[in-house]
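Listing S7. Sequence submitted for prediction.
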Amino acid sequence: MSLFEDTYLTIEASSEGIFRDRGSKFIAYAYPFKEESGLKDIVAELKSRHPKARHHCWAYRLTTDRSVFRINDDGEPSGTAGRPILNVLLSKDVTNILVVVVRYFGGTLLGVPGLIHAYKMATQEALDSAAIVEKTVNDIYRIDFDYLQMNAVMRLVKEENLPILKQQFDNNCSMDVEVRKMQVNQVLQKLDKLEQIRYTYVMTL
């Protein structure tokens, strides 16, 4: 992701797609996905929903710079399942997404080209029925300030249209705000001009 590119594409909600070939059925499930730790639960849930399916193959892409990905062929010939699923995610340029394709074997071997085509088509069906949305890459900053500075901070938050994620008002106040990557320098320059205010970077969404 370049310095000036602060948006990414992902799916808004889960979706499904089905592809059939010579008796075999490929059901693709696409999920919005941000934490690798959630993978096991999703695959286990699909295995319990489809106990007679032969394979549960998957691929995911993570992070806003689209740099993290993993694939799994789950017993299919190497490169025939996880890779074609991932290739669809790459061609659609989506991230923070997991696709699991559940395969029921129909009795006829499809061969390597047939499998690659089937896993690709099932994944495409799932993404075609999904709402693909553009999101901005946002940094979260925590602003700490004295109560007397409340008006100045709130004015800046309003001017820059910053979503407030968390706030605590006491003698010592703190507020977590979301700042779009493109806005960060501008917002920090304004914060630097305010007296008795401290800010810290928390994380990137």
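Caption to Listing S7: primary sequence and predicted structure tokens for the chain studied. The first strand starts at residue 7 and ends at 11. The chain has two domains: 7-134, 137-204.
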